[in-house]
Design goal:
Blueprint (H helix, E strand, L loop, with lengths): L10 E2 L2 H11 L3 H10 L8 E3 L5 E3 L11 E3 L19 E3 L19 E3 L19 E3 L10 H4 L8 E3 L11 H8 L5 E2 L2 E2 L2 H10 L1 H33 L9 H8 L2 H6 L5 H13 L4 H22 L15 H6 L3 H86 L8 H4 L5 H76 L1
Parallel strand pairs: 1-3, 2-4, 4-5, 5-6, 6-7, 7-8, 8-9
Antiparallel strand pairs: 9-10
Helix pairs in contact: 4-5, 7-14, 9-12, 10-12, 12-14
Length: 511
């Protein structure tokens, strides 16, 4: 590996180094002189070159939030780090360093050109976030496994790849393998890929490519399905009804129900569970649909009030006499008259502005109070539907309890009479000592199920009521802060205008 070493000690990327680099690479001549006088903000820098600086560790770059191009080649950097804030970066050169692993690039979602050539990297990974990557240079590293190429198939924009100088490049099938598995690649190792070579490569690896594409299709389908589930879950979380349209609540009842799990193996119980689970999961409750619709209506109404500017009365700002016209007057009586008129205008303007603000406060208070009543009514209706839904769940659980108790007692009678045909597990048979034991076991299971339903209802109602309270409090607080800010602005404007008038009057008196 060709690398230029020097006798300098490792350096730290401190503010002095960065200011010097920005100054040297900034505007020159007159523009440069002005830039040095006014100072250049790091956030305004778009390109930064820090090559051949003996830098050991990437640091202190967080202020360069709008940086597009960063050159850090020919240093002694060992780890990729400190780049988290450079989300606008498009071009990054880290070649000729001592980097052993690809890392620290998760936030660089706009990166298009990445050079990591002449390092010590042995594996291509951790580039998932670089969805816009077009150029990747990894030449002269220690990458030996050809399977690294398959990882690069996910980068749909990748057109230029450099891997020469790696152990894998010595393989006989190196070029054909890459052309087959990366069909959209245009340049490999600084040479354009011939279309004929692509055709030969695809033919040679057709079976493997077809199999890989099939696996990728299945994986993509699973990813899309999982994404759809997550989106639905987030939507239901926003409505406080997550996990109420599937078997989650049903399953949670048995998660800690030891006795219930044992009793589920009794003859006839599995059919009973399947029937009840179908009612819960497939025949989605109309009440739950109502909860969804009402909760989304709540969100929409709250968002509309929170982000929209409320209707305000029209404000006509009176024009205060221009002070410059007073300065142009030469006659003292005329000056005094205009100063008096201007003072009256200022006082009248203050009264008008304060009157309009008070009218606006009254309007907003009425609007907010109406919204508060409406949102509380909607939340109340939502809670009623939630409670109705949970009442249905309790009815189902009570029905299940009765049926399970009936099956258990019948099973006990068969065991006593020796008429039970099925073999029961030892831990289940141990429950059928006598009637009291089995009744207690069924009752304990029932209590756990009811507790799960009660807890879910309490959680849901508590969350929606808390959301409503915080929303209303925030709206009232925001209005108070708005009013205080507006009154302060009016006073500041009037004080400023009156101050100019007073200064003009004092000046005339002195003259």
């Amino acid at each position: 590996m060709n690398r230029l070493y020097n006798s300098m000690e490792p350096r730290v990327m401190d503010d002095d180094m960065l200011k010097l680099a920005v100054g040297e690479q900034g505007p020159q001549e007159e523009a440069g002189r002005l830039a040095k006088q006014e100072g250049v903000l790091f956030k305004d820098v778009l390109s930064l070159r820090l090559d051949f600086q003996n830098i050991l560790c990437i640091d202190n770059l967080w202020q360069f939030e709008n940086l597009r191009k960063l050159q850090l080649d020919n240093n002694i950097i060992e780890r990729i780090q400190g780049l988290e804030n450079l989300t606008q970066l498009v071009w990054l050169d880290l070649s000729f360093n001592n980097i052993e692993a690809i890392e620290g690039l998760d936030t660089l979602v706009n990166l298009e050109d990445l050079s990591l050539s002449n390092n010590r990297i042995s594996k291509i990974d951790s580039l998932d976030a670089l969805v816009k990557l077009q150029v990747l240079s990894l030449g002269n590293n220690q990458i030996g496994n050809m399977m690294n190429i398959i990882y690069l198939r996910r980068f749909k924009c990748l057109r230029t790849l450099s891997l020469s100088g790696n152990p894998m490049a010595e393989a006989e099938d190196y070029k054909m393998f890459i052309c087959a598995y990366l069909p959209d690649l245009v340049y490999l190792d600084f040479r354009r890929i011939d279309d004929h070579v692509k055709e030969l490569a695809e033919t040679k690896h057709q079976y493997s490519i077809d199999e890989l594409r099939h696996r990728e299709t299945l994986m993509q389908a699973r990813l899309e399905e999982e994404q759809a589930r997550q989106e639905e879950l987030e939507e239901h979380k926003a409505a406080f009804v997550e996990h109420l349209n599937g078997s989650f609540l049903f399953d949670s009842m048995y998660a800690e129900d030891t006795e219930g799990n044992k009793l589920s193996s009794l003859p006839g119980v599995s059919e009973l569970l399947e029937k009840e689970l179908g009612v819960v999961t497939h025949d989605r409750s109309p009440d739950l649909e109502d909860c969804d619709r009402e909760r989304h209506h709540l969100r929409a109404e709250a968002h509309r009030l929170a982000v929209a500017v409320p209707p305000a009365v029209g404000v006509t700002v009176m024009t205060v006499s221009n002070l410059s016209t007073i300065r142009e007057e030469s006659e003292v009586p005329s000056i005094e008259k205009k100063i008096t008129e201007c003072g009256e205008d200022v006082a009248e303007l203050f009264n008008v502005l304060m009157t309009l603000e008070m009218q606006l406060v009254e309007q907003l208070e009425e609007t907010i109070n109406m919204f508060e009543r409406n949102i509380i009514d909607l939340v109340g209706l939502f809670v009623e539907n939630v409670q109705s839904l949970m009442a249905q769940c309790r009815d189902l659980e009570n029905h299940h309890h009765e049926k399970l108790l009936e099956i258990s007692i019948n099973t006990l009678e068969k065991i006593v009479k020796g008429e039970l045909d099925e073999d029961l597990p030892d831990d289940v048979r141990a429950l059928f000592v006598d009637k009291d034991t089995i009744v207690n076991a069924v009752g304990a299971s029932h209590d756990i199920h009811l507790l799960k339903i009660d807890n879910r209802e309490d959680e849901l109602v508590t969350r929606v009521n808390s959301w409503c309270t915080h929303l209303v409090d925030k709206i009232h607080t925001d209005e108070i802060m708005r009013n205080r800010k507006r009154v302060k602005e009016i006073n500041q404007y009037i004080d400023h205008t009156q101050g100019e008038l007073d200064n003009l009057e004092c000046g005339d008196m002195i003259d």
